[in-house]
Amino acid sequence: MKNLLLLSCTLFFLQSCAFKPGTFSSTSVPSAPDYSKAEYWAALPSVNDMADRIPQGYSDSQMVAMADVFFLHPTTYLGKGGTWNAPLSSEKLNRKTDETTILYQASIFNGAGRVFAPRYRQAHLKSFYTDDKNAAKDALDLAYQDIKHAFQYYLDHENHGRPIILASHSQGALHAINLLKEFFDGKGLQQQLVVAYIVGWPVLKEEFESLRPCELPEQTGCICSWRTFKHGYLPPKYPTGDSILVTNPLTWTIDNSIAPKEKNLGAVLKGFDKIHFHLVDAQIHEGVLWAHKPKFPGSFLFTRKNYHIADLNFYYLNVRENAERRANSFLK
Questions:
Q1: Which of 14, 40, 152, 325 has a CA between 20 and 30 Å from the CA of residue 77?
Q2: 180: which residues sit within 8 A by CB, 6+ positions away?
Q3: Which residues contact 202 (CB under 8 A, 6 or more apart)?
Q4: CB under 8 Å to 171, separation ≥6 — which residues?
Q5: How high is the pLDDT of residue 19?
Q6: Nearest Cα to 305, choosing from 201, 250, 232, 241?
Q7: pLDDT in tens, 219-278
């Protein structure tokens, strides 16, 4: 099952990336981050960064929020050759991370809490489909160690007992599962968990000992997860079925009834500032989330059936509203 879970993240990238990776060094490891320094964070509430951006008509509430958001970004390290793990000294890579996932994903949560997003020595995309399984495991383990250290630094210096929203996508979601197991599941810190959004990575319903799926939109201390595909499509060789946790991000329930696109408060796509109202619907089906093909300028070029890249952005305002709702529910 573990190999299938790794494959699930890989399939999207194989469909959307045309590069051929070069040679990778198994001995060269980039320098470790020092999380006491702001440069090793892609988002901090005390710094003006891309996570502070808001769509028109909305507000960044970080300075008054009583909850925190710990956001784990997906894979942005796609280059040819080099090291298995991303060098955090790369200004080009850091800028790419900031202008993509931090802007388009982490910003979703600035209405619900202070946003913390660590830079980490993420595993290269190749880690998910290389034949060198030992190198891949080492790369992912190293990436998680950075996230673990970042989270511990946050707990020691920033949290002060505040409620926590854990948000993540793709590779970040894989690491979030491990973070939940090590720090939250059946442990004292579970009492501070508002909600965990583990998006773009398959999560088993019985993945955790104590943590359970969210079944209501205001429920707290629970987990939401989904992976989006074109309506009618079930990917081959991909973890599916009733054992996989899927949340409908338009209703925040786990039943398989279709939620029409009229329930979609708004998607945020390329360009960021424009809100695309009622863009896509959502329906749970056999361990994945189905959405009919959206219509937007240039959408005739949007031919893929795997909507992984838009897992969060198709439902941007619904996720934003839900994070605020759960934070308020927790604080009450």
A1: 152
A2: 166, 196, 198, 208, 211, 223
A3: 4, 5, 8, 225, 227, 239, 244, 287
A4: 9, 74, 75, 122, 123, 140, 143, 201
A5: 40
A6: 232
A7: 999 999 999 999 999 988 788 999 999 999 999 999 999 999 999 999 999 989 999 999
Place of tokens 């054992």: 243
The letter for the amino acid at 94 is N
**Dist. CA 268–CA 294, nearest whole Å:** 12
Q: Is the dihedral of CA 243, 186, 223, 332 positive or negative?
A: positive
Return the ∠ at Cα 178 (arms to 60 and 16), rounded to 5°: 70
Phi, psi of 26 (to 5 degrees): -95, -5
For residues 114 and 165, give the distance between their C-alpha atoms in angstroms, rounded to a whole number.
10
Nearest to 35 by CA among 86, 79, 88: 88
CA proximity to 106, closest of 329, 320, 321:
320
Locate the domains of the chain by residue range. 2-331
Task: Return the structure tokens found at 258.
Answer: 């279709």
AA letter at 85: N
Q: How far apart are CA 3 and CA 12, in angstroms?
A: 15
What DSSP string describes 202-237? --BTTSSSS-EE--STT--SEEE---EEETT---TT
Provide the H-helix boundaries in the chain. 2-16, 91-97, 103-104, 133-154, 171-179, 316-331
Q: What is the pLDDT of residue 238?
A: 81
The predicted-structure confidence for 71-124, as pLDDT tens digits, reads as follows 999 999 998 768 999 999 999 999 999 999 999 999 999 999 999 999 999 999
Here the tokens at position 21 are 């990776």
**8 A C-beta contact, residue 259 and residue 236:** no
